[in-house]
Amino acid sequence: MATFFRLRIVRDLGIALIVVFGAGSIAMLLAHVSPVDGFYALFDGAFGTTSEFAETLVSATALLFPALGVALAFRAGLFNIGAEGQLVLGGLAAGVTGVLLPGPPVVSIVATLLAGALAGGLWGGIAGFLKSRFGANEVIATLMLNVIAGLLATYAVDGPLHFASANEGETPLLAKTAWLPAIVPDTRLTISIVIALLLALVLWFAFNRTVFGFELRAAGGAPEAARRAGVDLRRIALQAMTYSGAIAGLGGATLVTGVLHRFNTGLSPGYGFVAIAVALVGNLEPVWIAVAAFAFGILQNGALSMQAEASVPRDVVNVIEGLVIIALAGRRYIAAQRTT
Amino acid sequence: MNAFLIALIAIAGLTLVKATPLIFAALGGVLSERSGVVNVGLEGIMIGGAFAAVGVSGATGSPWLGASAGVLAGALLAALLAFVATKLGYDQIVAGTGLNIAALGAAAFGLVLVFGQPGASREVPAFGAVGETALTVLALALAAALSLFLNRTPWGLRVRACGENPRAAAAAGIDPVRTRFWAVVAGGAIAALGGVFLSLAELDLYSDGMTAGRGFIALAAVIFGRWTPFGATGAALFFGFFSALQYTLQRAGIPSELMQALPYLAALVALAGLAGRVRAPASDGLPYAGTPVRPSSGMTHASSAEWPRDRP
Q1: Nearest Cα residue to B103 out of B141, B128, B77
Q2: Residues of chain B contacting residue A147, judged by C-beta atoms under 8 Å apart
Q3: How does pLDDT run across A146-164, given as a tens digit for each residue?
Q4: CA–CA separation, A7 vs A78, rounded Å?
Q5: How confident is the model at residue B194 (pLDDT cuts 50, 70, 90)?
Q6: At B289, is the pLDDT very low, low, confident or very high (cuts 50, 70, 90)?
Q7: What's the gap in Å between the CA of B204 and the closest CA on chain A?
Q8: Cα(A59)–Cα(A327) distance, rounded to whole angstroms?
Q9: CA gap B185, B188 in Å, rounded
Q10: Do B109 and A27 touch (CB under 8 A)?
Q11: Which of A64, A105, A319, B123 is positioned for an S-S bond with A293, CB 3.0–4.6 A?
Q12: A273 touches chain B (CB under 8 A)
């Protein structure tokens, strides 16, 4: 079984690569750019210099958090499309906490990150609550909550949570004590990548070696069987959506404390949606998701230089990501056939 | 009293304007879901319709050609979803989400290619206020037509059969894959009219994000309207009313973001209040490929049957 699983991963990565290069080439030709030049600019922008490579890892980290969150909910059979809103509100909570509660370095960082995770968890938990209490469809609930989260964040930073020293649509800069320390000097690559990778390991353990992980898989793979075997589907729905949102919210918080150093309503260029593609390509397996996040980080960051150097609008990357999701929609998501 | 009456009429008119794109999208959703395919890609289809309409109207100078192109674009996007969802039996919700992302990206990309600028197109020949009214009437007429089609014609019966029990339909000689495919494509064409309304009737240009989640509200309207054309239209009017209200209440000093959130909040509450009380077509969301495959992810409306509500 293990061999089959690996082969499937390889096949899916193959499909994803074909879509990326096929659709990318077509789009570049439409823009009257040679695909060779276009992809050269893309990869050069992703790997060309130390700082560019660091930015690629920054993008990968930004995707890894919400992708891990999405994967957790997916495993329980809950289609959390709300990572975007959860991430934005996590960022808002972190930004406000960082400004209001400056403290000693470690305390300040922990407080802002926790605030982000709490806010994201709360937002995800709303959808989980509606699902478990009323049976409300989580797909539509999270789609609504995304829109509401965006409006709420804009209202908050320009309204009750507006600081006199801040521009419209953002909080002031956080106190330096709340900044995540950089790993590579003079880049935006901070220890958030370490946190994300550790989280991936923790989730790998939780998914594969704990009762909760088994319950998630059972609820997602065969809900009726799980229910008869005594798994409380309502509890699982509430927990899975809350944890899923908390992880996405933590990701939003690391964007604030590590990358922007303030909350801005334009915090996320759709990380929460791309995360769905990342989670699917990574087959809902945390370790593979980390690999997929790196690949999508290349696309995300390389797109900027592709636009600047080769004049290919960077929105091509969104088209590619959407097509990758469609191409991989055929798989059974739950790794129920794994016997390990 | 007179001023009050005028305000009332203004809100009623604005409600119709705000509801029209929702009605088109929701009717497209109803047709698709009654055949058994949940179309989460309505938002992307509206985007595709809105952009293609502006692109072609700008190039040819004819809003009529533009509108036709918008409908065609919606049908083509829906055909992509229909192909993977019916012929390949892929997960409908995942594929629909991908369609939304791809369509938004494609429109932004097309904006730069066709109009040479990001963000928004230039102004193009559009229908104006007359077209606005005409499209609103068309939306209401389509609701009646779709209701007749689904309930009073043999083709409508076939569509519904595929949504309720595709295996039984197949046994009766109906090809569920083909029926679902064309229902989704036709639904996409109808939903795209909602995008055309936004870009060529309410406005005369395309701008990024102009659909602003209306495709998602339409999905809620389908459920709220219990999967019937008139019900969905009523729900769309209800959500349209909340959108119209925001312009009136905004003047009363209530923050605009909170007012903009109103229809989404209303949809959320409606979703929770109605869940379990309404019944989706029995095979809605379940892929059919010879035999219906229950998706492992259990992400469908149908699976919500497993979520009993505990109401005192």
Answers
A1: B77
A2: 212-213, 216, 261, 264
A3: 999 999 999 999 888 888 7
A4: 26
A5: very high
A6: low
A7: 23
A8: 23
A9: 5
A10: yes
A11: A64
A12: yes
Question: What is the per-residue pLDDT across B3-55, written as a single tens digit (0 to 9) for each?
Answer: 888 888 888 899 999 999 999 999 999 999 999 999 999 999 999 999 999 99
Q: Distance, in angstroms, between B312 CA and closest chain A CA?
A: 12
CATH for B15-290, among 1.10.3470, 1.20.120, 1.10.287, 3.30.70?
Answer: 1.10.3470
pTM for the model: 0.88
What are the residues whose beta carbons fall under 8 Å from the beta carbon of B277, sequence distance 6 or more? none
User: How would residue A338 be classed by pLDDT, with cut points 50, 70 and 90?
Assistant: very low
Task: Report the C-alpha gap between A166 and A116 in whole angstroms.
Answer: 20
**Domain ranges across chain B:** 15-290
Sorted by sequence, the CB contacts under 8 Å of residue A6 that are 6+ apart come out as: none
Q: Is the pLDDT of residue A3 over 70?
A: no
Q: Write the pLDDT tens digit of every residue in A43-55.
A: 999 999 999 999 9
Half-sphere CA count of B122, side-chain side, radius 13 A: 12
Whether B302 contacts chain A with CB within 8 A:
no
Q: What is the mean pLDDT of residues A61-81?
A: 94
Q: What is residue A15's DSSP assignment?
A: H
Q: What is the DSSP string of A185-227?
A: TTSS-BTHHHHHHHHHHHHHHHHHHSHHHHHHHHHHH-HHHHH
Contacts with A, B 180-219, CB within 8 Å:
212-213, 216-217, 219
Task: List Cα–Cα distances, A236 to A124, A227, B12, in angstroms.
Answer: 13, 11, 44
**What's the CATH number for A2-327?**
1.10.3470
Please identify among residues 107-136 of chain A the ones whose CB lies closer than 8 Å to any CB of chain B.
130-136
Average pLDDT over residues A13-39: 90
Residue B304 has pLDDT above 70, yes or no: no
Phi first, then psi: what are they for B198, rounded to 5°? -65, -45
Query: What six digits make up the tokens of A64?
Result: 């890894």
Query: In this structure, what token pair is assigned to residue B278?
Result: 């309404």
Residues of B in contact with A27 (CB under 8 A): 109
Residues in chain B: 312
Residue B89 confidence (pLDDT): 85
pLDDT at residue A331 is higher than 80: no
Beta-carbon separation of A81 and B97 below 8 A: yes
Calpha distance B76→A250 (Å, rounded): 39
* CB atoms B108 and A313 under 8 Å: yes
Q: What pLDDT, on a 0 to 100 scale, did the predictor assign at position A119?
A: 98
Task: Tokens for A309, please give them.
Answer: 């150097």
Q: Domains of chain A: which residue ranges?
A: 2-327
Q: How far is CA B131 from the centre of its chain?
A: 20
